[in-house]
Amino acid sequence: MAIVVQKFGGTSVADAEKIRRAAARAAEAHNQGNQVVVVASARGKQTDQLVADALELNPNPPRREMDMLLSTGEQQTVSLIAMALDQMGRKAISFTGSQIRMLTDDTHSKARIKSIGTDRIRKKLDAGHIVIVAGFQGMDENGNITTLGRGGSDTSAVALAAVLKADVCEIYTDIDGIYTTDPRIFPAAAKMDHISYDEMLELASLGAGIMHSRAIEFGKKFDVKIHVRSSMEDKPGTLISQEMPEMEGILVSGATMQKNLAKIGLIGVDNKPGNAAKIFAHLAGARVIVNDIIQVEISKEKANMSFTVAKSDLADAQKAIDEIKEQVHCQSVFVRDDIAEISVVGVGMRSHYGVANTMFKALAEGKINIDSITTSEIRISCIVDQEQGESALVAVCEAFDLDKPAEKRS
Amino acid sequence: MAIVVQKFGGTSVADAEKIRRAAARAAEAHNQGNQVVVVASARGKQTDQLVADALELNPNPPRREMDMLLSTGEQQTVSLIAMALDQMGRKAISFTGSQIRMLTDDTHSKARIKSIGTDRIRKKLDAGHIVIVAGFQGMDENGNITTLGRGGSDTSAVALAAVLKADVCEIYTDIDGIYTTDPRIFPAAAKMDHISYDEMLELASLGAGIMHSRAIEFGKKFDVKIHVRSSMEDKPGTLISQEMPEMEGILVSGATMQKNLAKIGLIGVDNKPGNAAKIFAHLAGARVIVNDIIQVEISKEKANMSFTVAKSDLADAQKAIDEIKEQVHCQSVFVRDDIAEISVVGVGMRSHYGVANTMFKALAEGKINIDSITTSEIRISCIVDQEQGESALVAVCEAFDLDKPAEKRS
Question: Looking at the complex, does the CB of residue B373 fall below 8 Å from at least one CB of chain A?
Answer without folding.
Answer: no
